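Re: export button greyed out
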Amino acid sequence: AQKITQTQPGMFVQEKEAVTLDCTYDTSDPSYGLFWYKQPSSGEMIFLIYQGSYDQQNATEGRYSLNFQKARKSANLVISASQLGDSAMYFCAMRANIIQGAQKLVFGQGTRLTINP
Amino acid sequence: EAGVAQSPRYKIIEKRQSVAFWCNPISGHATLYWYQQILGQGPKLLIQFQNNGVVDDSQLPKDRFSAERLKGVDSTLKIQPAKLEDSAVYLCASSLEVGGRKNIQYFGAGTRLSVL
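Workaround output, generated via the alternate export path:
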């Protein structure tokens, strides 16, 4: 069964600094996808970035990048030049196959990121 | 493009009462998901629809939870009767496809349920 582990319950970072949020995963499927979502206090889950298991390069989306280390089964999110608006819960998730090509997302416990001015 | 719409945003009920949540997915999205997010945890899938058919409901407590997606668009999730442990945020998500490598799921703002 697929499993996502986020070991940092909370992170505190000064504004403008870079921050790395850790995520490790476990799966026996050779093909998988990893996602990061942001959940502000308003509750909505906002998609940030995706990394496929066969992608040759690490994914980047603006200030977000994914440090994908396949052998170590880690997919850490890096936020460069953090902003106050980055304060939120961050969830790492893995695509898990169900049946007939259908998929679901398996989420980690999340990391609460607080950006200090 | 409008996002996933959910209502109500908040609901407070007493145990043993019934409650219903509504979700309108992004236009054209074939797949709709209902997740339960208990405080301090990541979301957990309850049920997944493709158009108006159920793809996976293995984690849905069927003795008290039910869901439907009429005409392959809107969906409702019902709890009857509610228990204290049903207190959670109920998130609806939709995606363009059923499978596929990327298949991003887009989420609504959720309904926060408190059972007293």
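The mean pLDDT of chain A is 93. The button fix ships in the next patch.
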